[in-house]
Amino acid sequence: MITQDAEKSESPEQKGSRGLRRRWWIILLVVCLLALGAYALLVRTGKVPLGNAGGQGKAPVPGIPVVAVQAKKSDFKVYITGLGSVTPVYTVTVKSRVDGQLMEVLYREGQMVNQGDVLALIDPRPFQVQLTQAEGQMARDQALLKNAQVDLERYRVLWKEDSIQKQQLDTQEALVRQYEGVVKTDQGQIDNAKLQLIYCRITSPITGRVGLRLVDPGNIVHANDTNGLLVITQLQPITVVFPIPEDNLPMVLGKVKAGQQLPVEAFDRGETRKLAEGTLLTLDNQVDPSTGTVRFKAIFANKNDELFPNQFVNAHLLVDVKAGATVVPASATQRGPRGTYVYVVKTDNTVSQRLIEMGETQRGQTVIRSGISPGERVVVDGAERLRDGAKVEVKVQADDATPKGGR
User: Fold this and answer.
1) Separation CA 407–CA 404 (nearest Å)
2) Alpha-carbon span 326 to 359, nearest angstrom
3) Quick one: pLDDT at residue 232?
4) Are strands 365-370 and 357-362 parallel, antiparallel or unpaired?
5) Are 224 and 127 in the same domain?
6) For a disulfide at 138, which of 60, 75, 178, 186, Cβ 3.0-4.6 Å?
7) What's the average model confidence in pLDDT over 223-238?
Protein backbone atom coordinates (compact mmCIF):
# COMPACT_ATOMS: atom_id res chain seq x y z
CA MET A 1 0.00 0.00 0.00
CA ILE A 2 2.80 2.40 0.86
CA THR A 3 4.68 1.52 -2.37
CA GLN A 4 1.63 2.01 -4.48
CA ASP A 5 0.95 5.32 -2.77
CA ALA A 6 4.60 6.36 -3.34
CA GLU A 7 4.35 5.50 -7.03
CA LYS A 8 1.11 7.42 -7.31
CA SER A 9 2.72 10.36 -5.65
CA GLU A 10 5.73 10.37 -8.16
CA SER A 11 5.80 13.00 -10.77
CA PRO A 12 5.93 12.15 -14.50
CA GLU A 13 9.56 13.34 -14.71
CA GLN A 14 10.61 10.90 -11.96
CA LYS A 15 8.88 7.99 -13.66
CA GLY A 16 10.61 8.75 -16.97
CA SER A 17 14.08 8.89 -15.34
CA ARG A 18 13.61 5.56 -13.67
CA GLY A 19 12.55 3.88 -16.93
CA LEU A 20 15.61 5.24 -18.70
CA ARG A 21 17.92 3.74 -16.10
CA ARG A 22 16.29 0.34 -16.52
CA ARG A 23 16.81 0.42 -20.27
CA TRP A 24 20.52 1.22 -19.82
CA TRP A 25 20.98 -1.71 -17.43
CA ILE A 26 19.30 -4.03 -19.91
CA ILE A 27 21.54 -2.77 -22.72
CA LEU A 28 24.68 -3.22 -20.57
CA LEU A 29 23.60 -6.75 -19.66
CA VAL A 30 23.11 -7.63 -23.34
CA VAL A 31 26.54 -6.22 -24.26
CA CYS A 32 28.24 -8.29 -21.50
CA LEU A 33 26.48 -11.43 -22.65
CA LEU A 34 27.56 -10.80 -26.24
CA ALA A 35 31.19 -10.23 -25.11
CA LEU A 36 31.21 -13.44 -23.09
CA GLY A 37 29.79 -15.36 -26.04
CA ALA A 38 32.41 -13.94 -28.38
CA TYR A 39 35.22 -14.82 -25.97
CA ALA A 40 33.91 -18.37 -25.56
CA LEU A 41 33.82 -18.71 -29.35
CA LEU A 42 37.44 -17.51 -29.65
CA VAL A 43 38.57 -19.95 -26.97
CA ARG A 44 36.86 -22.85 -28.77
CA THR A 45 38.52 -21.97 -32.07
CA GLY A 46 41.93 -21.67 -30.36
CA LYS A 47 42.49 -18.04 -31.30
CA VAL A 48 42.75 -17.04 -27.67
CA PRO A 49 44.51 -19.33 -25.16
CA LEU A 50 42.41 -20.38 -22.22
CA GLY A 51 45.14 -19.34 -19.81
CA ASN A 52 44.55 -15.68 -20.70
CA ALA A 53 41.07 -15.73 -19.18
CA GLY A 54 40.42 -13.06 -16.63
CA GLY A 55 42.53 -10.52 -18.47
CA GLN A 56 45.87 -11.74 -16.94
CA GLY A 57 48.55 -12.02 -19.75
CA LYS A 58 51.22 -14.77 -19.56
CA ALA A 59 54.63 -15.18 -21.33
CA PRO A 60 54.57 -17.18 -24.63
CA VAL A 61 55.61 -20.82 -24.54
CA PRO A 62 59.45 -21.03 -25.15
CA GLY A 63 60.92 -23.05 -28.03
CA ILE A 64 62.48 -26.48 -27.58
CA PRO A 65 66.19 -26.11 -26.67
CA VAL A 66 68.50 -27.65 -29.27
CA VAL A 67 72.13 -27.53 -30.40
CA ALA A 68 72.72 -26.70 -34.06
CA VAL A 69 75.74 -26.39 -36.34
CA GLN A 70 76.24 -25.21 -39.87
CA ALA A 71 76.85 -27.66 -42.69
CA LYS A 72 80.36 -27.17 -44.02
CA LYS A 73 81.93 -27.53 -47.43
CA SER A 74 85.33 -29.19 -47.10
CA ASP A 75 87.61 -31.95 -48.37
CA PHE A 76 86.45 -35.23 -46.86
CA LYS A 77 89.03 -37.97 -46.28
CA VAL A 78 87.90 -41.57 -46.70
CA TYR A 79 89.70 -44.09 -44.48
CA ILE A 80 89.72 -47.86 -44.15
CA THR A 81 90.35 -48.91 -40.58
CA GLY A 82 91.57 -52.08 -38.94
CA LEU A 83 92.81 -53.22 -35.55
CA GLY A 84 96.45 -54.21 -35.94
CA SER A 85 99.56 -54.96 -33.93
CA VAL A 86 102.98 -53.36 -33.99
CA THR A 87 105.57 -55.71 -35.48
CA PRO A 88 109.32 -54.99 -35.47
CA VAL A 89 111.18 -55.17 -38.76
CA TYR A 90 113.89 -57.24 -37.02
CA THR A 91 113.87 -59.13 -33.74
CA VAL A 92 117.08 -61.01 -32.87
CA THR A 93 117.70 -63.47 -30.06
CA VAL A 94 121.43 -63.13 -29.38
CA LYS A 95 123.10 -66.44 -28.50
CA SER A 96 126.65 -67.47 -27.80
CA ARG A 97 128.39 -69.23 -30.70
CA VAL A 98 130.92 -70.87 -28.41
CA ASP A 99 130.79 -72.79 -25.15
CA GLY A 100 132.31 -71.08 -22.16
CA GLN A 101 131.84 -68.97 -19.08
CA LEU A 102 130.08 -65.61 -19.41
CA MET A 103 132.66 -63.23 -17.98
CA GLU A 104 131.10 -59.80 -18.43
CA VAL A 105 127.89 -58.11 -19.59
CA LEU A 106 128.48 -54.71 -21.20
CA TYR A 107 124.91 -53.49 -21.71
CA ARG A 108 122.05 -52.20 -19.57
CA GLU A 109 118.57 -53.62 -19.78
CA GLY A 110 116.43 -51.49 -22.08
CA GLN A 111 119.47 -49.75 -23.59
CA MET A 112 119.57 -48.67 -27.24
CA VAL A 113 122.56 -50.32 -28.94
CA ASN A 114 124.06 -49.92 -32.39
CA GLN A 115 125.10 -52.61 -34.81
CA GLY A 116 128.59 -53.87 -33.86
CA ASP A 117 128.50 -52.79 -30.21
CA VAL A 118 130.09 -55.33 -27.82
CA LEU A 119 127.38 -56.76 -25.56
CA ALA A 120 129.10 -59.54 -23.60
CA LEU A 121 132.43 -61.38 -23.20
CA ILE A 122 133.00 -65.13 -23.03
CA ASP A 123 136.15 -66.47 -21.34
CA PRO A 124 138.71 -66.50 -24.23
CA ARG A 125 141.53 -68.45 -22.53
CA PRO A 126 140.59 -71.95 -23.74
CA PHE A 127 140.57 -70.70 -27.33
CA GLN A 128 143.85 -68.89 -26.91
CA VAL A 129 145.38 -72.22 -25.84
CA GLN A 130 143.89 -73.90 -28.91
CA LEU A 131 145.38 -71.18 -31.10
CA THR A 132 148.85 -71.71 -29.59
CA GLN A 133 148.61 -75.45 -30.13
CA ALA A 134 147.51 -75.01 -33.73
CA GLU A 135 150.33 -72.58 -34.46
CA GLY A 136 152.89 -75.00 -32.95
CA GLN A 137 151.57 -77.90 -34.98
CA MET A 138 151.73 -75.81 -38.12
CA ALA A 139 155.37 -74.82 -37.42
CA ARG A 140 156.32 -78.51 -37.05
CA ASP A 141 154.52 -79.52 -40.25
CA GLN A 142 156.01 -76.65 -42.20
CA ALA A 143 159.50 -77.84 -41.21
CA LEU A 144 158.70 -81.36 -42.37
CA LEU A 145 157.36 -80.00 -45.62
CA LYS A 146 160.47 -77.95 -46.22
CA ASN A 147 162.72 -80.97 -45.59
CA ALA A 148 160.65 -83.10 -47.93
CA GLN A 149 160.87 -80.45 -50.64
CA VAL A 150 164.71 -80.38 -50.31
CA ASP A 151 164.87 -84.15 -50.60
CA LEU A 152 162.63 -84.00 -53.64
CA GLU A 153 165.02 -81.66 -55.44
CA ARG A 154 167.92 -84.04 -54.67
CA TYR A 155 165.97 -87.05 -55.97
CA ARG A 156 165.21 -85.24 -59.20
CA VAL A 157 168.93 -84.59 -59.79
CA LEU A 158 169.79 -88.20 -58.98
CA TRP A 159 167.02 -89.53 -61.23
CA LYS A 160 168.34 -87.44 -64.12
CA GLU A 161 171.77 -89.02 -63.49
CA ASP A 162 170.03 -92.41 -63.44
CA SER A 163 171.26 -93.00 -59.88
CA ILE A 164 167.82 -93.85 -58.38
CA GLN A 165 164.70 -95.49 -59.57
CA LYS A 166 161.65 -93.52 -60.76
CA GLN A 167 159.55 -95.07 -57.98
CA GLN A 168 161.68 -93.45 -55.29
CA LEU A 169 161.22 -90.03 -56.94
CA ASP A 170 157.45 -90.52 -57.19
CA THR A 171 157.26 -91.51 -53.51
CA GLN A 172 159.08 -88.35 -52.49
CA GLU A 173 156.75 -86.20 -54.60
CA ALA A 174 153.75 -87.78 -52.88
CA LEU A 175 155.31 -87.13 -49.47
CA VAL A 176 155.70 -83.44 -50.34
CA ARG A 177 152.06 -83.19 -51.39
CA GLN A 178 151.02 -84.94 -48.18
CA TYR A 179 152.90 -82.41 -46.05
CA GLU A 180 151.38 -79.56 -48.06
CA GLY A 181 147.91 -80.87 -47.14
CA VAL A 182 148.90 -81.17 -43.48
CA VAL A 183 150.05 -77.54 -43.47
CA LYS A 184 146.71 -76.44 -44.96
CA THR A 185 144.89 -78.37 -42.25
CA ASP A 186 147.03 -76.68 -39.63
CA GLN A 187 146.14 -73.29 -41.14
CA GLY A 188 142.48 -74.21 -40.84
CA GLN A 189 142.95 -75.03 -37.17
CA ILE A 190 144.59 -71.67 -36.60
CA ASP A 191 141.79 -69.81 -38.41
CA ASN A 192 139.17 -71.70 -36.41
CA ALA A 193 140.87 -70.84 -33.11
CA LYS A 194 141.02 -67.18 -34.13
CA LEU A 195 137.33 -67.28 -35.08
CA GLN A 196 136.42 -68.73 -31.68
CA LEU A 197 138.29 -65.87 -30.06
CA ILE A 198 136.22 -63.43 -32.14
CA TYR A 199 133.03 -65.22 -31.04
CA CYS A 200 134.07 -64.67 -27.43
CA ARG A 201 133.19 -61.00 -28.03
CA ILE A 202 129.40 -61.04 -28.55
CA THR A 203 128.35 -58.02 -30.62
CA SER A 204 124.97 -56.58 -31.62
CA PRO A 205 123.87 -57.73 -35.10
CA ILE A 206 121.34 -54.85 -35.47
CA THR A 207 120.54 -51.44 -34.07
CA GLY A 208 117.72 -51.61 -31.56
CA ARG A 209 116.60 -51.82 -27.97
CA VAL A 210 117.94 -54.50 -25.62
CA GLY A 211 115.41 -56.46 -23.61
CA LEU A 212 115.74 -57.89 -20.14
CA ARG A 213 118.92 -59.87 -19.38
CA LEU A 214 118.37 -63.62 -19.64
CA VAL A 215 121.77 -64.86 -18.33
CA ASP A 216 123.89 -63.38 -15.57
CA PRO A 217 127.70 -63.18 -15.62
CA GLY A 218 129.43 -66.25 -14.24
CA ASN A 219 127.13 -68.79 -15.86
CA ILE A 220 128.36 -71.35 -18.38
CA VAL A 221 126.72 -70.77 -21.75
CA HIS A 222 126.52 -73.09 -24.72
CA ALA A 223 126.03 -72.58 -28.41
CA ASN A 224 122.93 -74.81 -28.37
CA ASP A 225 121.14 -72.96 -25.52
CA THR A 226 117.49 -72.36 -26.40
CA ASN A 227 116.82 -69.00 -24.75
CA GLY A 228 120.01 -67.18 -25.63
CA LEU A 229 121.59 -64.29 -23.76
CA LEU A 230 119.29 -61.40 -24.69
CA VAL A 231 116.77 -60.19 -27.26
CA ILE A 232 117.25 -57.07 -29.41
CA THR A 233 114.30 -55.46 -31.19
CA GLN A 234 114.59 -52.85 -33.90
CA LEU A 235 112.28 -49.90 -33.19
CA GLN A 236 113.20 -47.46 -35.95
CA PRO A 237 111.62 -48.02 -38.38
CA ILE A 238 108.81 -50.27 -37.20
CA THR A 239 105.78 -51.81 -38.90
CA VAL A 240 102.10 -52.34 -38.15
CA VAL A 241 100.21 -55.35 -39.53
CA PHE A 242 96.43 -54.90 -39.75
CA PRO A 243 93.55 -56.66 -41.57
CA ILE A 244 91.38 -55.01 -44.23
CA PRO A 245 88.04 -56.45 -45.49
CA GLU A 246 88.39 -58.13 -48.85
CA ASP A 247 85.64 -55.91 -50.30
CA ASN A 248 88.02 -52.94 -50.02
CA LEU A 249 90.88 -54.76 -51.73
CA PRO A 250 90.17 -53.62 -55.34
CA MET A 251 90.20 -49.94 -54.34
CA VAL A 252 93.54 -50.28 -52.56
CA LEU A 253 95.14 -52.47 -55.24
CA GLY A 254 94.26 -49.95 -57.93
CA LYS A 255 96.13 -47.19 -56.12
CA VAL A 256 99.07 -49.43 -55.23
CA LYS A 257 99.48 -50.54 -58.86
CA ALA A 258 99.40 -46.88 -59.89
CA GLY A 259 102.43 -46.28 -57.67
CA GLN A 260 100.67 -44.15 -55.07
CA GLN A 261 102.01 -44.05 -51.51
CA LEU A 262 98.96 -44.41 -49.28
CA PRO A 263 99.24 -42.67 -45.88
CA VAL A 264 98.50 -44.69 -42.74
CA GLU A 265 97.80 -43.28 -39.29
CA ALA A 266 98.11 -45.26 -36.07
CA PHE A 267 95.74 -44.45 -33.19
CA ASP A 268 95.56 -45.87 -29.70
CA ARG A 269 93.00 -48.52 -28.82
CA GLY A 270 90.48 -45.90 -27.67
CA GLU A 271 90.69 -43.99 -30.99
CA THR A 272 91.39 -40.81 -29.00
CA ARG A 273 95.07 -40.10 -29.70
CA LYS A 274 97.07 -40.32 -32.90
CA LEU A 275 100.36 -42.09 -32.22
CA ALA A 276 102.25 -41.98 -35.50
CA GLU A 277 102.03 -41.42 -39.24
CA GLY A 278 103.46 -43.75 -41.88
CA THR A 279 102.83 -45.24 -45.30
CA LEU A 280 101.54 -48.53 -46.66
CA LEU A 281 104.49 -50.87 -47.26
CA THR A 282 102.96 -54.04 -48.71
CA LEU A 283 100.07 -56.49 -48.41
CA ASP A 284 99.65 -60.23 -48.10
CA ASN A 285 99.20 -62.50 -51.12
CA GLN A 286 96.00 -64.22 -50.02
CA VAL A 287 92.66 -63.68 -48.27
CA ASP A 288 92.12 -65.27 -44.89
CA PRO A 289 89.03 -67.45 -45.52
CA SER A 290 88.06 -67.55 -41.84
CA THR A 291 87.76 -63.75 -41.53
CA GLY A 292 87.43 -62.55 -45.12
CA THR A 293 90.28 -60.08 -44.65
CA VAL A 294 93.69 -59.38 -46.16
CA ARG A 295 96.67 -58.44 -44.02
CA PHE A 296 98.32 -55.11 -44.79
CA LYS A 297 101.69 -53.89 -43.51
CA ALA A 298 102.50 -50.22 -42.94
CA ILE A 299 105.88 -48.78 -42.00
CA PHE A 300 106.49 -45.93 -39.53
CA ALA A 301 109.67 -43.96 -38.82
CA ASN A 302 108.85 -44.11 -35.07
CA LYS A 303 111.49 -41.49 -34.27
CA ASN A 304 109.99 -40.73 -30.87
CA ASP A 305 109.24 -44.38 -30.01
CA GLU A 306 105.48 -43.82 -30.11
CA LEU A 307 104.93 -47.42 -31.20
CA PHE A 308 106.07 -50.41 -29.16
CA PRO A 309 106.43 -54.02 -30.34
CA ASN A 310 103.26 -56.14 -30.00
CA GLN A 311 101.20 -53.05 -29.11
CA PHE A 312 97.60 -53.03 -30.38
CA VAL A 313 96.73 -49.97 -32.47
CA ASN A 314 93.96 -48.83 -34.79
CA ALA A 315 95.34 -48.32 -38.28
CA HIS A 316 93.62 -45.80 -40.57
CA LEU A 317 94.47 -46.22 -44.25
CA LEU A 318 93.67 -43.13 -46.36
CA VAL A 319 92.26 -44.32 -49.70
CA ASP A 320 90.41 -41.29 -51.10
CA VAL A 321 89.74 -37.56 -50.65
CA LYS A 322 86.37 -36.14 -51.74
CA ALA A 323 86.95 -32.48 -52.59
CA GLY A 324 84.26 -29.88 -51.78
CA ALA A 325 81.88 -32.26 -50.01
CA THR A 326 78.99 -31.08 -47.81
CA VAL A 327 79.78 -32.35 -44.32
CA VAL A 328 77.71 -32.44 -41.11
CA PRO A 329 78.23 -34.22 -37.79
CA ALA A 330 76.97 -37.78 -37.86
CA SER A 331 74.75 -37.02 -34.84
CA ALA A 332 72.63 -34.73 -37.04
CA THR A 333 71.29 -37.58 -39.18
CA GLN A 334 68.09 -39.37 -38.18
CA ARG A 335 66.29 -42.38 -39.64
CA GLY A 336 62.55 -42.63 -40.12
CA PRO A 337 59.91 -44.51 -42.14
CA ARG A 338 60.53 -42.28 -45.16
CA GLY A 339 64.32 -42.58 -45.00
CA THR A 340 67.22 -40.61 -43.60
CA TYR A 341 66.59 -36.98 -42.66
CA VAL A 342 67.89 -34.01 -40.68
CA TYR A 343 66.18 -31.14 -38.92
CA VAL A 344 67.10 -27.83 -40.54
CA VAL A 345 66.73 -24.67 -38.42
CA LYS A 346 65.09 -21.88 -40.43
CA THR A 347 65.49 -18.16 -39.92
CA ASP A 348 62.28 -17.93 -37.83
CA ASN A 349 63.69 -20.52 -35.38
CA THR A 350 61.39 -23.29 -36.56
CA VAL A 351 62.66 -26.62 -37.86
CA SER A 352 61.97 -28.38 -41.11
CA GLN A 353 62.38 -32.11 -41.54
CA ARG A 354 64.56 -32.54 -44.64
CA LEU A 355 65.15 -35.87 -46.40
CA ILE A 356 68.81 -36.37 -47.36
CA GLU A 357 71.05 -38.79 -49.23
CA MET A 358 73.98 -39.84 -47.07
CA GLY A 359 77.49 -40.64 -48.22
CA GLU A 360 80.47 -41.92 -46.25
CA THR A 361 80.76 -41.54 -42.49
CA GLN A 362 84.22 -41.10 -40.99
CA ARG A 363 85.38 -40.02 -37.55
CA GLY A 364 82.02 -38.59 -36.50
CA GLN A 365 81.39 -36.75 -39.80
CA THR A 366 78.98 -37.62 -42.60
CA VAL A 367 78.99 -36.58 -46.24
CA ILE A 368 75.60 -35.32 -47.47
CA ARG A 369 75.20 -35.97 -51.18
CA SER A 370 71.87 -34.17 -51.50
CA GLY A 371 69.20 -32.56 -49.33
CA ILE A 372 71.03 -29.66 -47.66
CA SER A 373 73.51 -27.02 -48.70
CA PRO A 374 76.61 -25.63 -46.97
CA GLY A 375 75.70 -22.90 -44.48
CA GLU A 376 72.34 -24.34 -43.44
CA ARG A 377 71.96 -25.06 -39.74
CA VAL A 378 71.15 -28.62 -38.69
CA VAL A 379 70.16 -29.90 -35.26
CA VAL A 380 72.78 -32.17 -33.67
CA ASP A 381 71.32 -32.45 -30.15
CA GLY A 382 67.68 -32.49 -29.06
CA ALA A 383 66.23 -33.83 -32.31
CA GLU A 384 64.36 -36.62 -30.53
CA ARG A 385 61.85 -34.05 -29.14
CA LEU A 386 61.20 -32.26 -32.43
CA ARG A 387 58.44 -32.40 -34.98
CA ASP A 388 58.27 -30.79 -38.39
CA GLY A 389 57.51 -27.09 -37.90
CA ALA A 390 58.29 -27.05 -34.18
CA LYS A 391 59.68 -23.86 -32.67
CA VAL A 392 63.17 -24.22 -31.22
CA GLU A 393 65.62 -22.22 -29.18
CA VAL A 394 69.22 -22.72 -30.27
CA LYS A 395 71.10 -22.96 -26.98
CA VAL A 396 74.55 -23.51 -28.51
CA GLN A 397 75.50 -22.37 -31.97
CA ALA A 398 78.60 -24.28 -33.13
CA ASP A 399 80.46 -22.81 -36.09
CA ASP A 400 82.44 -25.93 -36.95
CA ALA A 401 80.95 -29.16 -38.20
CA THR A 402 84.03 -31.04 -37.01
CA PRO A 403 83.14 -33.10 -33.92
CA LYS A 404 85.10 -32.88 -30.74
CA GLY A 405 88.25 -34.86 -31.08
CA GLY A 406 88.00 -34.96 -34.87
CA ARG A 407 90.86 -34.30 -37.20
Assistant:
1) 9
2) 10
3) 96
4) antiparallel
5) yes
6) 186
7) 93
